[in-house]
TrEMBL record:
Binding site residues for substrate: 60, 132, 157, 187, 191
Cofactor: NAD(+)
NCBIfam families per the UniProt record, alphabetical: ahcY, PRK05476.2-3
EC number(s) given by UniProt: 3.13.2.1
Name of the featured protein: Adenosylhomocysteinase
Gene name of the record: ahcY
Organism of origin: Aphanothece hegewaldii CCALA 016
Pathway involvement of the protein, from the record: Amino-acid biosynthesis; L-homocysteine biosynthesis; L-homocysteine from S-adenosyl-L-homocysteine: step 1/1
Domain S-adenosyl-L-homocysteine hydrolase NAD binding: 192-353
Database matches in Pfam families: AdoHcyase, AdoHcyase_NAD
């Protein structure tokens, strides 16, 4: 006799954490007025009725509010983690217990469990995928070609995911439309810069309780995230060094008043290192050798590959946990290197990720991006699409209103002036 396995309904740490999760989700909602308005409209209009949706995001209080919006819009939605260390277990419990949203995510899950959850999500046979880092879409394209015809489209949250989608497009394997949420101005201007800026330092401080005033902080990468981290580290009184590979960004960092040099020079000067490049092995064996005793290294960019932890582990004579999310690697040269959050995103591993007020705009883009895909079902050729400028502007206008800020509007005379070419000096 063959036994049909019972399909797992959810995979979370502890359902009894739900009431704590509810309190924290409600707290986050107070700072998410734009998403709240979208949720109210979705509840009336049900744009996702009859559609299966999977969201692969960090399972946080902010993502919970997005999931609630999607469900209010009629989606048959499930949620999995986009990172093994970022799940807030009380949030996962609350979504399952109080909202009936299946969640497959446990803080600290191993890589096998993480990938098993991706497979379970794909078993849901999604029509829409919200991805953060492109792991679900990449798995679908590699392993589930028979499901491609179900897909209306995907929305991608982060820079790294867009880089992977662009590579898929180049290789001719992207067979559906993908909405580039990261490129919306109301996303990366605020989320990548102010969100990563604040929450990365929050993660470093919660993990170590280090005083940042007077320390030398080395920021690798001066993109949107790097600008935020450098700006906030300076605000706390750190001396900031920036490393870059892009000459324009390097000039920008120099003109913003930071010291710019290669990692091979910065390695011996830094007390705290933060990688935010989206690239691999930005800090590697040769750099660890040069670092000061007790130097702290962490990543707020791309998965756990920006810091070459394998080579550090191979060199180390001892690795020990010294605090939560803080491990000390002893080296044969007698010095030690402290690694935060296992080299994964320190802001989500050791702190709570970006504050709700910025995720409000990022997830408004996600919600409206999904609706846009449904409204344009069958009309968008395979490719990567920006969020329409009108939606971006609408989100900014709603946010501004919620912040109690009003701004000027163009006069008829000004409109006339900026649309004409005849009046000059
Ligand atoms: P970006 O493209 O704006 O910036 C990345 C910068 O890193 C670029 O200026 C690039 O020239 C530089 N760079 C690349 N390789 C380098 C190297 N070897 N050394 C030094 N600099 C190098 O990207 P972004 O929006 O700033 O995002 C950076 C990473 O952070 C991405 O992986 C993104 O997915 C991730 N991200 C994380 C969070 C978070 O919550 N922690 C938030 C947003 C984005
Ligand atoms: N998934 C990969 C790629 C980076 S994730 C990884 O985990 O390594 C970076 C994204 O996390 C950002 O684009 C940001 O929008 C998102 N993020 C940051 N704080 C968050 C929060 N509080 N809740 C949900 N997502 C968050």
């Amino acid at each position: 006799m063959t036994v049909t396995p019972i399909k797992q309904k959810y995979d979370i740490k502890d359902i009894s954490l739900a009431s704590m999760g509810q309190q924290r989700i409600d707290w986050a909602a107070r700072e998410m007025p734009v998403l709240r308005q979208i949720t109210e409209r979705f509840a009336q209009e049900k744009p996702f009725a009859g559609l299966r949706l999977i969201a692969c995001c960090h399972v946080t209080t902010e993502t919970a509010n997005l999931a609630i919006a999607l469900k209010a819009g009629g989606a048959d939605a499930i949620l999995i983690a986009s990172n093994p260390l970022s799940t807030q277990d009380d949030v996962a419990a609350c979504l399952v217990a109080n909202y009936g949203i299946p969640v497959f995510a446990i803080k600290g899950e191993d890589n096998d469990t993480y990938h098993r959850h991706v497979q379970i999500a794909l078993d849901h046979k999604p029509n829409i995928i919200i991805d953060d880092g492109c792991d679900v879409v990449a798995t679908l394209v590699k392993e589930r070609k028979h499901q491609l015809s179900d897909i209306i489209g995907t929305t991608e949250e982060t820079t790294t995911g867009i880089v992977r989608l662009q590579a898929m497009l180049k290789d001719g394997v992207l067979s559906f439309p993908a909405i580039n949420v990261n490129d919306a101005e109301t996303k990366h201007f605020f989320d990548n810069r102010y969100g990563t800026g604040q929450s990365t330092l929050d993660g470093i401080i919660r993990a170590t309780n280090v005083l940042l005033a007077g320390k030398t902080v080395v920021v690798a990468g001066y993109g949107w995230c790097g600008k935020g981290v450098a700006m906030r580290a300076r605000g706390l009184g750190s001396n900031v060094i920036v490393t870059e590979i892009n000459p324009v960004r390097a000039i920008e960092a120099a003109m913003d008043g930071f010291r710019v040099m290669p990692m091979s020079e910065a390695a011996s000067q830094g007390d705290v290192f933060v990688t935010v490049t989206g690239n691999m092995h930005v800090i590697r064996a040769e750099h660890f050798e040069m670092m000061k005793d007790g130097a702290m290294v962490c990543n707020s960019g791309h998965f756990d590959i920006e810091i070459d932890l394998k080579s550090l582990g191979a060199k180390a004579t001892e690795v020990k946990d010294v605090r939560n999310f803080t491990q000390q690697y002893s080296l044969p040269n007698g010095k030690s290197i402290v690694v935060l959050g296992e080299g994964r995103l320190v802001n989500l591993a050791a702190a709570e990720g970006h504050p709700s007020a910025v995720m409000d705009m990022s997830f408004a883009n996600q919600a409206l991006g999904c609706e846009y895909l449904v409204k344009n079902k069958g009309q968008l050729a395979p490719g990567i699409y920006s969020i329409p400028t009108e939606l971006d502007q609408d989100i900014a206008a709603l946010k501004l209103k919620a912040m109690g800020i009003s701004i000027d509007s163009l006069t008829a005379e000004q409109i006339n002036y900026i649309n004409s070419w005849t009046s000059g000096t």
